[in-house]
User: Fold this.
Amino acid sequence: MTTIAIETVTQTGMADDAQLIASFARQPILNRDGMLCGYEIKVRAPATPAADAEAPADADANAQEGSPDSKLDPAQRVARAIIRGLTQSDLRSALTGHPAYFDVSREVLFDDAILRLPADRFMFELPPGIVVDDALIARVVHLHGRRYRFVLDEVTQPNETFAKLLPYAEVVKIDFARAPAALLPKLTSVLKSAGKLLLASGVDTPASFEAARGLGFDRFQGYYFARAQNLTTRRVSAPRHALLNLLQLLAGDPTVAQLEAELKLNPVLVMHLMKLANSSGLALGHRVTTLRDAIIATGTNRIARWTQLLLYADGRKVALEDDPLLQLAATRARFMELAIERMPDAGRDEADAAFLTGVFSFVDAVFGGSLENTLNVLTLSRPIQAAILHREGTLGLLLGVVEALELGAWDQIEKLCARSQTLTVEEVAQMGLAAGAWAGVADRSAEGLERIED
Assistant:
């Protein structure tokens, strides 16, 4: 999950001249084939300044021209801050071309600034607690006529709100963990017959995914794909033992000749490396045609990172930005690297250790079995293993931060930031954005990943 901090225009005329800051966390939504097809945006609404209630009577007269938000009440200003954040280019980068689902309050829904959001890129989720009256129905109908799409959110069983809003919803999101199991077959059958797309949320195990899939659900939200039990539903792009052998060799500062000999044993790895070396910016103006030249052009550091992330790549011909496990691994690793750079006296070695901690923190999703045994095979250092297994040290703290980001656990992020004595929630959000954008670019040249396919 990536978070995005968006800073809005200063509210002039307020007693403390405060700025509203909204943060967003993304959670992956997968299709029936297990590929990314969207993200839910979890909003951390900005707190309105306490001084708003004490704003002077002539605040509007003192507001700068071009700052219309200064005339809004606190709830409307929060809504405007959220909408403004959703229009930022940084958010589009973090979505990697996928549509965004997000909860809309009445204030957001009735603010005409919502029309700035592209109808083909956003899905408006109607929460179960929203007040449904004639005005709301009229607004939904108006927006529906402008091609905006709606989702009924957090459905556990039909009620009056559900019945009133169902005709206008394209998607029905059912809380799979909380909905009565006996009700699900009939409910899903009726909704499918009505032409609704069904999204199961809270799908965190392969068993729950299979159950929801068997009932006909079309979309799935949860981290079932990153669990060790999911091993049988995935294959990697190269033999696992070959990738492990290469990683072990790379850990010992090998010569070009040693790397060449190891790679020649694995034609799939050679093919990937040749593609990587011939990407723009690496081939140094000419096409790389030999394995030795490819190793030299790429460099051992990039080969190591490429191999680490290749562990998570789906063996099918899947675009990088659609592969959920690879996206999660790459985003977590990059976040760890960015976060350690904020720590005092952190250098290149610490950044490399942070990246390794992130990328191998759920390697059991690929190999299955004991996480501790796999980490031992990878010959990772004790601090990295302690961080992954026990959340110890600075690396363990940062790993806890990125896990909280993936869950949208804002209170936990604040506690961990306080423990770090260095990070703030806003900085963490910005790093999450940068990490998500880094992971989502499929055609990198100078840095990052290449498209991984057979």
Q: What stands out?
A: Residues 324-340 form the longest helix (17 residues). The CA atoms of residues 119 and 148 lie 5 Å apart. The beta strands are 3-7, 21-31, 36-44, 100-103, 122-126, 149-155, 171-175, 197-201, 219-221.
